[in-house]
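thought: fold this chain, then report.
action: predict
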Amino acid sequence: MGKGKEFIPLEVKISKGANKRFPERHGDTDVRQQHWSFFSGFTLIELLVVIAIIALLMSILMPAMQRVKKQARSVACLSKLKQWGIYFAMYADDYNGRFMRGFTASPQANRWVYALGDYYKWDDEFTCCPNAYKPWVDKYGVNSGAEGSTLGVGVTMAWGYMNQGHWKKPMKGSYGINGWCVDPQPGNEPHSGGVNWFWRGPTVSGAGYVPLFLEAQRYNGWALHTDRPPSYSGERWNDDAQMGRYCLNRHDGFGGCLFLDYSARKVGLKELWTLKWHKEYNEAGPWTIGGGVQPSDWPEWMQHLKDY
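observation:
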């Protein structure tokens, strides 16, 4: 301070009630306690109203969330199928434009599970649709009893676990190949088709209409245009009408399909009968609009689905 100058303290006035840390006392009652007591309580009716509002919001949001989950699984399924297209393309490139020999190959079967194993690294989750992961038989050999049952479990369950001996590990899956796309050895053609029915490789005309690899109850099948539809979703495991192995309602009337040109998209369940499964397949067969089918001709569970 300068010499000779007197220090005069500054007087600061604090308005009444400005410092809430030191609340004013009124008799024996704390003013702050009175202030908070006004806001701290809810009546039972108010709580019930809040709970009712939350429940209403949940009832509105839950179906939307379920739809989003289903859509996400469908997108994930198509993403997997597109990746399978890369594996099939790599295999064909490595084997002179031809696909695997199939289960009638000699001296040992050459199903896609084995033939493509080195490409997909024997990943037993990648062989499954996101809506059908759980196998009929678990890794420890515990059988659920679902295989070949009449419960329609093929819709939500995977085939396997199974091992063909020469496989590197037991496998499960919920995809299957169109059996007419393999390249069997001459004289070893499976099923009732002729030699000229098989596609054998991807370099064909109209490849975008030929199903190659799709959602299935079994790892393979040989569909015919006369195959009757399954009486319920997931009926067919051991049955001659093998279109039913692919006619599974996993995605609200649709299934994921990889085509011979390696494109992938959702296919309507009734649309399956209009695809070019083999070289002699009639795309206007009796189960198509062009073949005269009526909505009432389909099993009840399929009647509301889109016609093709």
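thought: worth noting. The first helix runs from residue 31 to 37.
final: tokens above.
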